[in-house]
From TrEMBL:
Membrane topology: Multi-pass membrane protein
Keyword Glycosyltransferase among record annotations: no
Signal peptide from the UniProt entry: none
Chief location: membrane
Protein name: FtsX-like permease family protein
Cellular localization per UniProt: Cell membrane
Top-level lineage group: Bacteria
Stretches that traverse the bilayer: 271-298, 327-348, 368-390, 417-437, 449-470, 498-517, 720-746, 773-797, 809-830
Swiss-Prot/TrEMBL keywords: Cell membrane, Membrane, Transmembrane, Transmembrane helix
Listed Pfam families: FtsX (PF02687)
Domain ABC3 transporter permease C-terminal: 277-396, 724-832
Amino acid sequence: MFRLAVTTLRYRTAAFLAIFVAVLLGGALLSAAGGLLETGLRLNAPPQRLAAAPIVVTGDPAYHPPNGNGAAAFPERHRVDADLATKLAGTSGVAHAIPDRTFPAVVTTPFPTGYDALAGHGWASAPLTPYELTAGHAPRSGQIVLDQRLAGTAKPGDQVTVAVGGEPRKFTLAGIAAAKHQVDNPAIFFADADVAAGVNGPLGVNGPGGANGTAGTGEAAGVDAIGVFPADGTSAKDLAKRLDLPAGVKAYTGDDRGGAEFTGIATGLPLIIMSGVFGGMVAVVMALVVSATIGLSVRQRRRELALLRASGATPSQVGKMVVAETMVVGVIGLVLGLLCGRFAGHWIFGMLTGGGVVPAQLRFDQGILPFVGAAILTFAVLRVTVGLAAGRAARIRPIQALAEAAVPPVALSRVRIIVGLIFAGATVAIASSTPFMGPTNAAAIGGPAGLTGSIAVAILAPLVIQRVLIPRVTGWIEKRGTAGTLAVINLRVRAVQFGAILIPITIATAIAVGNIYSQTTQQQAAVEAFTGNLSGDVVITSTSGGVPASLTEAARSMPGVTAVSELVQSKGWIEEPYDKSHTSDAWPLLGLSGPIYKGKVTKGSLDDLTGETIALPPGTAKKLKVDVGSDLGVRLGDDALVKVKVVALVEGPTGYESLLLPAKLLSAHTTTGLPSQLVLKTTNKKAALKTELSKWPGTTMGSRDVLGNGLDTGLGVDAWISYLLAAIAVAYTAIASVNTIAVAVLDRRREFGLQRLTGSTRREVSRMLGLEGLMIAAIGLVTGLITAAFTVLPIALATRGLPIPSGPIWILLVWVAVVLLLVLPTTAITGRIAMRSKPMDALSTPVG
């Protein structure tokens, strides 16, 4: 039977090519998903600017809820006390310890740099890379040393303008330095005395934790990291374990040091979630596509399988033959897919880093385990699907097979109908419950509706086709003449075969359209909720590290300006009393300094939002049993626990509430120490927009539309999961549709030959095929869009309050065009191939 199975491959090329490509793509994508999982578990990020330090000590970059599970990355730099460096330097086995303080610094003149995010450091931290001088000398007060990539044609002694803390300042170029290895972000080194006096000194930058250290306490400024160098003969790993570190501070060695240098590498949970959803969806879609293709191939071979049974083959032998021929093709596809898995993994990871979902410095790890896991899972999916199809082929009786080959049955079994209805019911139940969820949970609850609906259509595909062919629809087709009449007859009689074409179109439409429009709807809802609660006509944004105080003061005197508010965004947690509603997921924090918030104040006044105060949503205050005048302990984005007094209860959009704090307090606990934007209320918007801002390099002024630019909606990972799933849907649709159509059309050579012998021309047969393809494409698009609606509309209702999705209409139009361009040309080309031979020769074709 194995030899016979291999022989059949020569005559069933189209069907087995579909299985081959589907398994190849599935194996490649599953191994890529495994690589994302391994990367999320390992979190290896080789250090760059801190590479010379064998041990890096810094604040724990991950927040760990006191009464909850999981962890979340701090949105801001978690700095440590500068005095810790002195303590570590005195530890036995430590040769020396070098602290590093990073602050925003951007070269503005006399030469462009091409870098948007430059960092200032004290010269004493240069050995942490190491940087070495190639010209000039170490900086003194009022001087700087530039990375050679920034120096251009400048030479020591030239005057350079650097925006530090958003303020442009003149410095003398003391020297030029080069890093001894790759450092993505070139550094600007200042005199250590200037950095130490940065709070009110020549740099004018805030110390870590704000202008006064930890807000309002007057504590000394901290540092980002401390590089520890072991003494000769001392193991870095052993020394790191015995360092006496305060709570919340960690020592890193090896590639783990990158987590101390780069933000966003505190937890691999986003990658772990993404890899799980991504891999699971690949496996499900692959199983549906492969099973549909195998099922179509087996149904088309009923005659030859019946002849095998009639000639003495046992059911077991027939089943083994179907399994053997499919597994031969599948295993070859799996091997090639695994070979392509590394390229697929790097490609997907590159898109994630390019999109800012994960830090670019994170290393993509894809060892042997992702490939082993992908091989096992792909093999299991393939074996189960082919086993089901082989079982059907083995059980059928010879006489029944010959009869079904002549007139294919359309009726579905009772079990299949029940299973399909169960999935359809699950889709309705999921869609019905989604509108009652908050915006945060709406996507997680409503997203699976598209998948369950697709499975329901896949199971009931022949029944769906029959129910769609109502008189009004068939009448329109039959008006196209004989070709239309034959197309309607074929759609009814061959509903099972056309169902195999319908399945990938429906699945792809539901996944692609559903996921994309779900994300655009959620993104738009988040932006509308944020911007809708802020009044103001003009927004000033800075790309040089933040908005300096001098610009805020200047804005107050701009023509037509009636109110100015600094705007600061971060995230944090309420810990005293503990808020169980936000554990690993943080509260959005919004810092304000002016009357621009439009939410309804139910108690207290936002005029009192100064100093160490906070405004809460009324529902949160009720849940925590606090009121105006109560004290709270809030864990801010840099791990500082600040004590604040509740001065107001303010309503916000349901599901998008924020905690309001004074801008000065919140900005003091951000990485830059400065507001990110200024919002201006004006009586003359045009006059305000004409204000000259050249005094502050990197600042731009625009209308309130820019408020939503760069807004962290918290949907970054979810969005990329949706886009990757949409890409999978497109890929599998192209593969499955093209191959399934090819198999179905080429198998009808005898039918076309008979039609031509009875008087039909090639053009008439081609027109019949075109109408069939157009109908199946239309049915697939409609059922896919209906299925997608069970995801998109409930999510829109949960996030926007109306069942109206957001997103450009061209996405839908492009998708319709993609489906039509896949179905119609493939049908036409394969139809021409099927009619290439003479009619009498087609009647004697041994196989389709």
